[in-house]
Amino acid sequence: MRNQVFIYGIYTIIVVSNLSCSHNQRTDKNNVSTLEDSLYLKNVPAQPGEENWKFIDDLKSPMWTKHPWVKAQPGPQEADLSEGVNFQMGFPDPNGRLETAYDDLHSFLSAGGVQSINGEYTIEIAVAPNLKAEDFHLEIEPKVCHILAGDVEGIRRGIFHLEDEMLRLRGPFLPLGKIEKHPFVQRRISRCVYGPIK
Fold first, then answer.
1. N or C: which terminus of the chain has fewer CB atoms within 10 Å of its end residue's CB?
2. pTM exceeds 0.70, yes or no
3. Average pLDDT, the chain
4. Structural domains present in the chain
């Protein structure tokens, strides 16, 4: 008896919910059935044409323009890059696959008011054959930072990690010490529909 009451209750809930859904639908002048709820907007404007898509210009614009640095002086355990940077590119890159990462780092430093030619701080980029694909190792000292990796992708990630550290410290400074990163997921490949095709 108890099971029959339970089954009857379930059927009642299903029937009542179906009836309530059918009463929430209406038919407009073109006999098109639409849901009449808070998500239905009958006066939605037409989608603008591609000539009005402002985000395309945003994607083409420079990523780094000006950093609102908060700190003017480095902390006791931070390297100071404010007097400019000198690069030593010792990592072999015959196909030029690191050019975009180098350009990004130059733009990043420039947006923070840091010159990237003949500066007092040295960033050395070199090979560490013992590191696996995409791994990188940073050795940050008071006057020099070593970015070490076994492949191009490791160097790229090391460069972007330096940028992240400066953004985190809110100034042209780096934390002294050693940092080593290994990707949890390797060979991540994706493509945005608005991304470059070449």
1. C
2. no
3. 84
4. 59-181 (3.30.379.10)
